[in-house]
């Protein structure tokens, strides 16, 4: 993963005679303490001091994990090699990175060269839960290429221990604001993960964030009452409006939930009683002609995933979002999306004249 900001519009289209030309381009690279804990041990009934509480990792170990990630990520980016990257990335982050490598075939030589420049995370702040409370930790940091200024806005990054013991980055969201909620700490100085992300805190449960983001695409009225207006909500709302405007009058676009392959949430409590979450959302875009003589011509980005660049009555395009959000403690308040990034992860033609998704019965 190497990103500081991605493109805004998930798709654009224009009519050319009776063929609808879709240019649904992929997204372009557009506090608390150190979590080390402070427990020195307390006297037990037997007079012996208990062992100092430990985090899921120490601050020093967290730094080593990030250094290791940078090394292999930069190596993988240099060759656009997903096999190397799989050593240090998993989940939604890895899925997005693989799609970025695929899209590079459409990039200019300069764009590819810029992406392959090594980068590092600076101004690192680790938010480490107590051992046994989670198998992951969060880091906020800025990305920086050699000889350049650091990124303007921070990334919120999650590293998780895998079943084999290796640590991988599994979630990442770059903020579109410098503001960050202050994270809570327990009495020993550790970050506090939410034990139940399905439990409502404030206006909604963290598990409801993915649905809330999807409502922005669908134009659901409740979206305005649950999520505060921000730069992120504004550009997401524009996507379906712009796509339908450009496909009209011979086509239309519909947005719905995609297959939730990597939909996982990581949430920490904030000092004010709210929470900070990083979550993923799969969005499926269905572009289709609205008459028997209209068809859709795939974009260069879509062709990366297709066997043929031929026009078809309809196409399904899958997008994977990673988003960071603050849920305030008061139920009357609104959720604040701090930032969201997306990548095109698949494209397929509809299986029939009605545009059924390939491999489904509907």
From TrEMBL:
Record-annotated DUF8094 domain positions: 54-348
Pfam family, one: DUF8094
Keywords of this entry: Signal
Signal as UniProt keyword: yes
Signal peptide start-end: 1-24
Keyword Amino-acid biosynthesis: no
InterPro entries found in the cross-reference section: DUF8094 (IPR058407)
Region (Disordered): 32-53
The protein, known as: DUF8094 domain-containing protein
């Amino acid at each position: 993963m190497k990103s500081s900001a991605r493109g805004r519009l998930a798709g654009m289209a224009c009519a050319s005679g009776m063929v609808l030309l879709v240019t649904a381009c992929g997204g372009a690279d557009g506090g608390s303490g150190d979590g080390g804990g402070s427990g020195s041990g307390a006297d037990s009934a037997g007079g012996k001091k208990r062992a100092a509480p430990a985090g899921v990792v120490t601050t020093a170990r967290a730094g080593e994990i990030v250094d290791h990630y940078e090394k292999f990520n930069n190596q993988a980016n240099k060759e656009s090699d997903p096999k190397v990257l799989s050593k240090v990335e998993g989940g939604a982050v890895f899925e997005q990175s693989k799609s970025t490598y695929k899209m590079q075939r459409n990039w200019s030589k300069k764009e590819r060269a810029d992406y392959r420049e090594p980068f590092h995370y600076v101004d690192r702040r680790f938010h480490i839960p107590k051992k046994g409370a989670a198998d992951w930790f969060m880091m906020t940091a800025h990305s920086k290429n050699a000889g350049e200024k650091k990124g303007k806005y921070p990334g919120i990054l999650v590293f998780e221990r895998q079943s084999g013991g290796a640590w991988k980055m599994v979630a990442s969201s770059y903020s579109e604001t410098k503001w960050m909620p202050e994270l809570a700490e327990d009495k020993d100085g550790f970050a506090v993960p939410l034990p139940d992300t399905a439990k409502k805190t404030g206006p909604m449960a963290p598990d409801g964030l993915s649905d809330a983001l999807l409502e922005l695409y669908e134009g659901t009225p409740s979206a305005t009452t649950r999520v505060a207006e921000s730069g992120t909500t504004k550009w997401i709302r524009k996507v379906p409006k712009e796509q339908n405007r450009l496909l009209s009058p011979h086509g239309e676009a519909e947005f719905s939930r995609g297959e939730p392959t990597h939909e996982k949430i990581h949430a920490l409590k904030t000092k004010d009683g709210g929470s900070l979450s990083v979550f993923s959302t799969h969005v499926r875009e269905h572009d289709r002609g609205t008459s028997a003589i209209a068809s859709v011509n795939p974009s260069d980005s879509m062709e990366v995933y297709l066997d043929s660049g031929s026009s078809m009555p309809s196409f399904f395009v899958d997008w994977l979002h990673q988003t960071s959000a603050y849920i305030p403690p008061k139920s009357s308040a609104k959720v604040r999306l701090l930032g969201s990034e997306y990548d095109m992860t698949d494209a397929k033609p509809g299986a029939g004249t009605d545009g059924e998704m390939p491999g489904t019965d509907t």
